[in-house]
Design brief:
By secondary structure, this protein is mainly β. Helices cover 5% and strands 52% of the residues.
Length: 547
Amino acid sequence: MTRFFSLVVLAMCVLLSQGTVRVLNFKKSGQDVTAAWQRAAAGLAERDTVKVNFGAGTYYLSGTVEMLCNLTMSGKGSAKTTLKCRVNSRFTDDCFIKAAGHLGRTIAVEVANMGIDLEKHKGMAWNVNSAKYLLKIYHADRVSIKSVSSYIDNAVCTNLNMRCCSNVAVTGCSLTNYNNNHDGGILWLSGNTENVLVSNNEFRKQGNDEVVGFYGTGNDAWSAGTNAKSAYKRNIKVCNNKLWLSGAAGQPLTMAFSMFNVEGQKSSNVAADVRDVTFSGNEITVAGDVRCIFAFQREQNTTGKNIRYANNTVRCLAESSVKGSARAIFRIVDHSEAKEPFVISGNVIDNKANVLGADGYNYYNLLDIDGATVEFDGNNVSSTKDAANKQSGMVGMYVNNAGGKVNMKNNVLKGLCVLASLSVTKGSIQGMEINASGNRFEGGTTIFCNNLDRLDLNLSNNEFFSTNWEYFLQEFAKTGTLVFRNNVVTANKGGGSLLSHYSNVPTKNMHFERLEVCNNKFYGIQSTELLKNMTNVKHRVVSGNTF
């Protein structure tokens, strides 16, 4: 009896340590599962578990299910089992399904082999300013979303939102959001985030807001705003996904992939650590107006390193020219002190879209940087020039007020509008450094300067195939350096000056601390005007050039 009693006590202790497990088996297609699910979730805490098993068929959810416990949910396959979230639901939160732990008391969530859709509807059924989520997860230490499909259209709604979650895997899913509104994304992860894999998924998006977004510094999902003195985003891999993107009428898609330390504002009081982030092997097809493909913003007190965009393919399909503000493939802002480099390597960009300003120039930027240091290596970029608009093509680099540094090696850039636009209308660019070697530049190969304090250029062993006789500098900075060695330049016939000058600023105000032009080969241009507009030079070396 003593032994038996001991075993019973042991079993009870194990059961109590594991918590309560409630199992729901839904097998009748067409049934509304809301009430039964809500009853099963009532009164449970973080150590408890709700297991929901769906058979083949379609099931309906007509209200919010709130679970403060672990969740396991599965079906018979994404094409066989579908949970339909009804638009006219009774919401007790801003979502249909919520699985939530608390700070220091995390849960685990597993969803597999089923579909989670927003029910077809005729227009909006809730207030347009009241954004919703199909599935929301708070404070989870283990999340697996596998072989799940999800579809939303014409609603201010996001497929999946996670806050303060780590050890997350979203794999083999098909996630679609044709929100056609200002708000509503697909996969968002906010607050402290660590160990995330988003791999082998298909994303389809039409309308504004991010497809996959990392943002926010909060360490507690239950508290609004920035509520942590320190924050982190670490070991994140977004790889081998396929994306189909388009804006809606009047609602260009904001970004495909984004990572921001804070939500909607700069943060000088939060020390954030963002490191070991990789976006690689993704295939992105852009079929409409998209403002930015890859966006990263590093704020003042942010530390971290190993941010990499590698071996992605971006295809911007042919479309009517869009008139409006600039668009970008990569937009990188760095307000930190360390200026750890961003690595962009091995990507293939094929652009057939134009974004035309009132001046007729294209404002589709390959690199849009503000204060960042970028290692740009081994990328292959082509942009189709519109025969009806000689100024179309892609801007290689667009630089904002904080300036930056770009190291370019072994890239091919075809169909350029300009190689770089170093120009601002308000204030000035603090300083810019460009080091380029082993690259091939075709199209408009000019570096345009305006309101630039300092520019340092070191270009060697590059090929320039310019569609204009103005093949290199148009204006210069207040001061800087130029090293131009062992390059091959082919340009339309003209005077052949390295520096063309049209502005009202006299050339004597453009000071070259160091000027080296050596061992270059020039085709299609004359030698007589090579250094024509470089009138203020402190140290000059010119030798070995052929024409």
